[in-house]
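Here is one chain, start to finish.
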Amino acid sequence: MNKDWLEKDFYASLGVAKDATPEEIKKKYRKLARELHPDKNPGDAKAEEKFKEVSEAYDVLSDVEKRKEYNEARTAFASGGFRPGAGGPRGAASNVNMEDLFGGNDGGFGDLLGGIFNRGRGARTQQPRRGADLESHLNLSFDDALDGVTVPLRLSSEVACETCRGTGARPGTSARTCLDCQGSGQVARNAGGFAFAETCPTCRGRGQVIEDPCPSCHGSGVGAKSRTVQVRIPAGVKDGAKIRVAGKGAPGERGGPSGDLFVLVHVSPHPLFTRKADSIAFTVPVSFAEAALGAQITVPTPRDGNVTLKIPAGTTSGRTFRVKGKGITRKDNSRGDVLVTVEVAVPQKLSDEAKAALESYAEATSDVDPRAGLMNLAGQ
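Its structure:
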């Protein structure tokens, strides 16, 4: 039985809840790994130790089988249910023949539990492993978001160190097999009648000892590499949308597939247009005469130039007109509409002639009260 799994709280190491989703675990690990990576903290032993701690925690919690075994082990043993000398019903376990209870294999009880916790551990580490997903942020103009655009994104991701080719050892040297664990990464320790398998303190579970670390990666075997990825942003993308680009994340390990790239889109506001679902809205000022007498006015659209809009006589301020097919491009390549709201503009300054004309108008319409019945509606 791997005693490390019982004594270590991997959830606490990553700072996630026990019911955290795989996405939450992956996101928290990536954040901590970037902060604690030896390249960012050269010579900081505490950061290096913490980096290895969160890596070990992620190795267990990111694997469905390992996480299940870990949870079962913590539930069954961390409470002391099989601790010799415990009181009550649990204490009775000290008188139970564990070989009879769990079966007598050649290796005994310790080997059986060791098989549960370490099943396929060595073989699993040699299998292909999918690369990590990456996330990038992209700022787009309003027009580019409407029409769609292909943009180059500069990414930096972890890859095998180019200096040591991932071995962690200085070029020209090699790691030696750990003599304490014979390359297994684990050592046995007797504790109260139980044989515990724990991480080898000499090689820290790697099975190898690097006596002369690589100067570039400080023995981690990991380096950073920049690359440019062309990403197609579809027409009509919304602010806050997340675009998935399959296979453009971090490279896989040992021939495994690459992860995915997720691009979080931020659309800059436009000085005139605003988005409402699949439509584009804006407000256009009209004069009192245009609203009262009717007119044909020219208004802009986000694309296809200007259009002529007919304003009927007697149009009130706040009325909205629809220009079809000039809005957002939908997934089926159809387009939403443009919504034009008119607002009667009140002149701030009047010429003597305009003032006299308005006074004549006011006198001619003095018998028309736009507030008639207002008091009755208010209950007064």
